[in-house]
Write a structure and sequence with these properties.
The protein is an alpha+beta fold. It has helices at 3-19, 43-48, 116-121, 156-169, 185-195, 213-221, 233-236, 252-264, 298-306, 323-338, 350-358, 364-378, 389-394, 419-428, 433-440, 444-453, 465-474, 479-486, 490-499; strands spanning 21-29, 39-41, 50-53, 80-84, 90-93, 101-103, 106-107, 111-114, 123-127, 131-139, 175-178, 203-207, 222-225, 228-231, 241-245, 266-267, 276-277, 281-286, 309-312. It has four domains: 18-139, Tumour Suppressor Smad4, CATH 2.60.200; 156-312, Rossmann fold; 316-394, Helicase, Ruva Protein, domain 3 (Orthogonal Bundle), CATH 1.10.8; 414-499, no CATH class. Helix content is 38%, strand content 17%. Residues 151-153, 158, 179, 181-187, 245, 285, 287, 365-366, 369, 445 line the site of adenosine-5'-triphosphate. This is Sigma-54-dependent Fis family transcriptional regulator.
């Protein structure tokens, strides 16, 4: 074989190997949190059919660093044995180890057979309730990840998206980002913006579904009245990026206006006759199946014009290996935000991580972030993260009808809801967003967006500390009265009070 042939073959082999999936253990939580996200390939299991897991074997690594074993003093040196079985199954033997082993949070006495399908989804292995590992078939490729990444994660999907983000950053073509609610479409758009030359320029995100027909022209084109100039969204994004969110949920009038803008490549502010050229990169996000769009409609033409490049972000349950890192990141982020100045070496209990890894996450990464915030609020005075029993039961696998489930009964467009209707419904539902969404026939995310949009409508998160203090004293700590006084939900209010250290 010639040198060139060898080099080419070598490169091809490396490429094939890097995409080949092998049984891999990923650290989802560990008493040393810097180890979250480290991986170990079980190559002996893959090649010879047997492998071991103990305090001293195998070696885990990330970011191409030198590997080290789990090394947790509470984990036994006597190993758990992995044995390949016919049909792609793996027998996990825990007879000879003193380590307490759990699978998906349930104790394993002697043996557990891992089915092939489970290996595809990821099997959650707990060791002494301290270390939690995900056993999953994953590509050999390692992924460097640091706290400065805008798109956090170690999965092959996120790695591929990060790679595309870099490529797209140097171009100006429009990008369509697809994926279910809360997967990180907006975050991906922001990552492209941040990686581009225009990163110091504006990043404007527009929730199209919340734009009322009556004000659509003013909001999109801008206006000039009585010498007051109000720039539209496209002008606000001048030189930077505009993200048109949930394009399919906008009204036909909004679709028409957007089409006009794209055709003329300019906007004419209401009350003027001056055409301002649009000078921003356009990105779209959508959570709908493209197959459902009516052919030859304005919407289909719009999407065709703006989908020069498409990115798809898979749901969180298809990349469970990202959950440990993301949760750790969100917990630290929330801790900083809520208790700045208080240093905390956050330890994530194994029981919680097992539950996070087995939950079905209908609200994807946004929901994971909300859970992190709630856990941080509930843990204010605790040594390690505290689990509210109610939250724990909501995170039970299969709790599909629980509070966290995304509501299926969305029947209305959010822009048909007026401020008065929203306020009245919120009051009749005691300011609970889920109940309000159900009653209005829109999604919970849309209720939230409408609240942000209408002046004088708020959630407990928006209240200032002074307002809370005043109402607390005035209503003598009665949260029912405070709810009517401040017009926000009692649950949200109680959470704010707790996080501010009030006695309730
Ligand atoms: N890979 C990621 N790394 C860091 N944060 C992320 C990541 N993915 C999502 N997030 C965070 O999760 C939350 C939801 O993400 P985002 O708003 O981008 O979702 P989305 O897909 O646009 O949702 P929707 O369709 O409901 O508007 C945000 O707070 C975002 O910052």
């Amino acid at each position: 074989m010639s040198a060139t042939q060898y080099t080419t073959k070598h490169a091809v082999d490396e490429l094939v190997n890097s995409y080949q999936r092998v049984p891999m253990l990923v650290i989802a939580t560990h008493p040393d949190r810097t180890r979250i996200g480290e991986r170990a390939a079980l190559m002996d299991l893959h090649n010879q059919g047997n492998d071991y897991l103990s305090r001293v074997k195998p070696e885990f690594a990330k970011n191409g660093n030198v590997g080290r074993a789990l090394l947790d003093e509470f984990i036994s040196r006597s190993p758990i044995i992995f044995q390949r079985e016919p049909g792609g199954r793996i027998r996990l033997k825990a007879h000879s180890t003193k380590t307490t082993v759990t699978i998906a949070g349930r104790g394993v006495q002697d043996e557990y057979i891992v089915q092939e399908k489970e290996l595809d989804n990821g099997v959650v292995i707990g060791l002494n309730h301290r270390v939690v590992l995900l056993l999953k078939l994953l590509p050999l490729h390692d992924s460097a990840v640091d706290d400065n990444d805008v798109l956090f994660g170690i999965s092959a999907d996120i790695r591929a998206i990060r790679h595309r983000v870099e490529q797209l950053a140097g171009m100006t073509l429009p990008v369509m980002i697809r994926g279910a609610a809360g997967v990180g479409k907006q975050q991906a758009a922001y990552a492209i913006h941040q990686a581009s030359n225009g990163k110091s320029r504006p990043f404007v995100s527009v929730n199209l579904a919340a734009i009322h027909d009556a004000v659509a022209e003013v909001e999109l084109f801008g206006s000039a009245r009585n010498e007051t100039r109000q720039p539209g969204y496209f002008e606000q994004a001048n030189g930077g990026t505009i993200v048109l969110e949930d394009i399919e949920d906008a009204s036909v009038s909004v679709h028409r206006l957007l089409y006009t803008i794209l055709q003329s490549q300019s906007v004419v502010p209401v009350g003027t006759d001056e055409a301002l050229p649009i000078n921003c990169r356009i990105m779209l996000t959508s959570h709908h199946d493209p197959a459902g769009i009516e052919e030859n409609s304005i919407l289909s033409m719009l999407i065709e014009k703006l989908s020069a490049y498409q990115l798809f972000i898979p749901p969180l349950t298809e990349r469970r290996e990202d959950i440990g890192l993301l949760f750790d990141y969100f917990v630290r982020e929330q801790w900083q935000k809520l208790y700045s100045g208080r240093v905390h070496d956050v330890k994530i209990p194994g029981e919680l991580m097992s539950q996070l890894l087995t939950f079905h996450w209908p609200g994807n990464v946004r929901q994971l972030r909300n859970v992190a915030r709630q856990v941080v609020i509930d843990s204010r005075e605790q040594e390690q993260l505290h689990l509210d029993p109610q939250l724990l039961s909501m995170l039970k696998p299969g709790a599909a009808n629980g509070h966290w489930e995304e509501e299926p009964g969305v029947q209305r467009k959010p822009n048909s809801v007026s401020r008065n209707e929203l306020l009245e419904t919120l009051r009749s539902c005691r300011f609970e967003l889920q109940a309000t969404a159900k009653k209005l026939g829109i999604s919970r995310a849309s209720v939230y967006q409408l609240i942000q949009r209408f002046e004088g409508v708020r959630t407990a998160q928006d209240l200032s500390e002074d307002e809370i203090k005043e109402s607390y004293e005035l209503n003598r700590s009665d949260t029912e009265r405070m709810m009517w006084d401040l017009q926000v939900s009692q649950i949200g209010l109680r959470r704010r009070l707790k996080s501010l250290g009030y006695d309730i």
